[in-house]
Structures are given as C-alpha cells and as structure tokens.
Design a protein that fits this description.
With 259 residues, the protein is an alpha/beta fold. It has helices at residues 31-46, 68-71, 76-81, 91-94, 110-117, 144-152, 154-163, 169-175, 187-200, 203-215, 221-234, 239-249; strands spanning 6-11, 15-20, 52-56, 61-63, 99-103, 106-108, 120-124, 128-130, 167-168, 180-182. Bound molecules: acetoacetyl-coenzyme A.
Amino acid sequence: MAYETIETRIEAGKVGIVALNRPKQLNALNDQLMDELGAALKAFDADDAIGCIVVTGSQKAFAAGADISVMTKYSFADVYKSEYISRNWEHVRSIRKPVIAAVAGFALGGGCELAMMCDFIIAADNARFGQPEIKLGIIPGAGGTQRLPRSVGKSKAMDMILTSRMMDAQEAERAGLVSRVVPLDKLMDEVLAAAIVIADMPRLAAMAAKESVNRAFESPLSDGVMFERRLFHALFSTADQEEGMEAFLAKRAPSFSHR
Ligand code: CAA
C-alpha cells in the first residue's frame, strides 16, 4: 500500500518500522496520518514474519501533537458527532504484537500520547515530552490525562499538564516515562537491537506478556493476577514452552516455532 504521511520498512526480516513523515509540520497528526498509521500497524500485526513493531518520527520531532491547523476549524458538533480522536487514534491499542516508540525531538500533546500508547518508549537524548494543550484552550484528548499519571505519578502529570512545561529525556527516564535514553545518533540502532531481541522471543509468550502487563492498568490487582495466572497456565500448551525448557536443560539454543 502506498502511504503519503508515513514510511514503512521491514528490518532484519522481522521488525516492522513505521516512520511518521510530515516533516514540514513536525509530524503533526492529522486524519490521513492516523488512518495510514493504523493501516500500517494492522498490516504488520497480521504479518507472520513480523515479531515486533517500531513507531518513530524524525530526529527533530516524533510528533508535535494533533494538527492545530485542522483543529482550529472544529466546533463541538464537529468533534462530538465524528468521534474525533476515538475514530482513528485507538488502533495502536488494538495491536497485539509488541510496539516500541523510538522518540527523538519533540513528543508533544498527541505526540506524547501516541508514544504512551506504545508498549514502551526508548528516547534519544534530545527528546522532549510535554502536554501543552492547555495553552490552546483544551486538554490532552488522546489519553494524556490518564496515561501520564499512571506513568509518572499524579504530581508530575499535574505539573506538566497544568503548566505545559516540557520534560527532557533525562527527567523522563527518572520519572519512568521512558525505559532508556540513548545518544541521538544511536537511537535507531538501539531500538532495532531491542526489537530484534523481542522478535526472536517465542511469539505467543511475547503477546501474552504484553496483554498481561497491559491488564495491570485496567483491573484490580487480584483480577490482574488471575488474568496473568491463566495466561501463564495456557502457555504450557504451546510448542515453544516445551522447546524453551528442553533447550535450557539440554544446554542448547532454542529453536522457536511461534506455536
Ligand atoms: N499542528 C500543526 N502544525 C504544527 C504543529 C501542530 N501541532 N506543531 C508544529 N507545527 C508546524 C508549525 O506551525 C510550523 O509550520 P510553518 O513552518 O508553516 O510555520 C512548523 O510545524 C514548524 O514549527 P515551528 O516553527 O513552531 O518550530 P519550532 O522549532 O520553533 O517549535 C514546537 C517547535 C515547540 C514543537 C512548536 O512547533 C509547537 O509548540 N508546536 C505545537 C505543540 C502543541 O501545542 N501540541 C499540542 C497540539 S494539541 C493536541 O495534541 C491535542 C490532543 O491531545 C490530541
């Protein structure tokens, strides 16, 4: 499929890369981009060769937020009737394979929210995160008021959302928003290395692990633990569980079939 606002490629035969590509607008997120991103993610999710997906931007901007030049024309009736955001921003959440956000430069507003919808964030040392929507007379509308406090705690989330200040990569790592910070010129190498490690893991276990960690944010502890326990039990029915354990005991490398 030909895309205009994103670029896609496959690395190492098993990692699907989606690069947001509206450089003049710092990857501002409009409908076309969100539609194309959703289509690309779903295509990689359905491709048996792919074991991990990476969403990235440019060195200057992961994404500077929802497209303000489009939003400025919207009324309440427009956004409410057409389910703005819900209509095409939720695809990332439906992807079952692991998704890494590789963030360099600005990740603001919807850009920060998109990164937080991914499973984890690896940041370049020039990354800057923020939810500056309040300056536009709105609030974060793609999950920022919910995911940011779950990630960095209430105090820092309130500070960022109410003052609109940006967080640099080091602060984001200290706060737990990102899993690691790497030099800008090493970002894609480091992310690709992590993505290959994940893609080589037994696929069903990786998908179950993702599903179970995400359940931690949706349910009381006892329900989450029960969900985890049942998936853990279910994995004993897979060929890769047998292979992984036999290979360990035989002191050889496992050969996973992803079944
Ligand atoms: N929407 C539309 N266009 C945007 C944009 C956005 N979110 N962010 C940047 N651009 C455009 C600029 O208008 C500018 O276009 P022109 O060259 O045609 O003037 C171009 O990208 C480059 O931007 P700047 O000249 O502003 O670049 P800078 O380096 O001086 O500043 C910046 C960079 C700090 C990121 C600044 O562009 C900025 O503050 N952008 C807006 C950030 C923002 O408010 N994001 C939240 C949007 S609301 C939202 O996301 C709602 C939601 O929760 C879903």
